[in-house]
Design goal:
The structure is a homodimer of 240-residue chains. By secondary structure, chain A is α/β, with parallel strands linked by helices. Helix content of chain A is 32%, strand content 24%. In chain A, the strands form three sheets. Chain A has a five-stranded parallel beta sheet with strand order 3-2-4-1-5, sandwiched between helices. A five-stranded mixed beta sheet of chain A has the order 7-8-11-9-10, sandwiched between helices. In chain A, strands 6-13-12 form a three-stranded mixed beta sheet. Strand 7 of chain A pairs antiparallel with strand 7 of chain B, so a sheet runs across the interface. Chains A, B: Its EC number is 2.1.1.131.
Chain lengths: 240, 240
């Protein structure tokens, strides 16, 4: 039996009781060092905690499958929701129906970041990762263009990292083909964790901001606005 | 002080400790009957619980603001995440910066439904509500067309209700202009609650299924597939 468990934004106060109970049933828990560190205070000495390297996702899932077949209950952890750019997909592919896999959802970064900024996702939105490690940039650009054409609120995961210093600028340039530079936007570092920071900005200014891999950025639709210092996309209950 | 609190999919085991703590600090908690019923077993007799009708959203927020100004700590509850088609946006609009509003995120229906189906949201996705109560159908159709053009996985909130029996069919017809009828899809009733049901289908068959307002539907991208009975969108870790 394998549980793929979402830890939420990071703080223990956003880990659901269902996720905690699933981890409690595990004999072995595997994940990136950052995520294992998050749960270690609670489980160290009581569970076998296995740190697995970034880019070792397939191997991690194969190890989880092997341990499960040996009779262990295995937990595979992701931050946020494990189904959003997390481990759920690859774990299900590796298990291929030969072993039971239960996905335990969590609060994803889009929702955690939105809550800090206000309520930018209260109408239709699109989620796009700017990481081109596993996705050709052409597909990312096509999706950004489509999301802009549909006037979606756009939530950007993995907006910038050392290995991809230009992707946020390229993404903003792509969106600016259709959207106004005055479009309300915001970004959050470490949403729901220690060191949380929220910044309001505009699409025109976003490319110049100093984001990193702990950030999530949100670019509004044409209806998104700043109300009392918070980023809000009206659903339409009130037309002020 | 006003907390807008996400209850998650419904079961108490998916309410985060942060959400529970926020509710614990409230003197008054307001919401639709369904949501108040969810928390009543824990808070009845200890909090003032105020049931507010559907379509009374602006009034509910005005009442919350008034009670907060009178010195109460007020909770406004939504199921799932309060920032996704929930009460966070309108509450921030009504408060307009004159009263502190804290949004406490929750597990949104997209993530809860995806977890039940497998991992359909593991790559870029768009979230579209098919409710045309507050949004013109033309904008909904434009967003569906854009999401299809971008080959997003598409998560449909409010896919069907008594008042909108044709919207799911219309949405499927719109998506079928671009997408194959064989596109893998799925839908879930009461994700994360008692009576949970998961169904795999295809885009071509989806319009004929019997969904209701407790359902969330997910239509895959061109990469989404069924693996071992689960709906999976590969992120690209493994190219089988």
């Amino acid at each position: 039996m394998i549980y793929v468990v979402g830890l939420g934004p990071g703080g223990e106060d956003q880990l659901t009781p269902r996720a905690l109970a699933a981890l409690g049933r595990c004999d072995v828990i595997v994940g990136y060092k950052t995520y294992i560190d998050l749960i270690a205070p609670r489980f160290k000495g009581r569970k076998e905690l296995v740190v697995s390297p970034m880019k070792g996702e397939v191997r991690r899932c194969e190890d989880a499958l092997r341990r499960s077949r040996e009779g262990c209950t295995v937990g595979v952890v992701s931050s946020g929701d494990p189904g959003v750019y997390g481990m759920a997909g690859i774990m299900l592919e590796v298990a291929a129906g030969h072993e039971e896999v239960i996905v335990v959802p969590g609060v994803t970064a889009a929702c955690a970041a939105a809550a800090v900024l206000g309520a930018p996702l209260t109408h239709d939105f699109a989620v796009v990762s700017l990481s081109d490690l596993l996705t050709p940039w052409e597909l990312i650009a096509r999706r950004l263009e489509a999301a802009a054409a549909g006037d979606f609120v756009i939530c950007l995961y993995n907006p910038m990292s050392h290995g991809r210093p230009d992707n946020l600028r390229l993404a903003c340039e792509t969106l600016l083909k259709t959207k106004s530079p005055d479009t309300a936007a915001g970004w959050v570092r470490s949403a729901g964790r220690d060191g949380e920071e929220a910044h309001l900005t505009t699409l025109g200014e976003l490319a110049g901001e100093k984001l990193d891999m702990f950030c999530t950025a949100i670019v509004g639709s044409s209806a998104t606005k700043v109300v009392g210092g918070r980023l809000v996309t009206p659903r339409g209950y009130q037309r002020p």
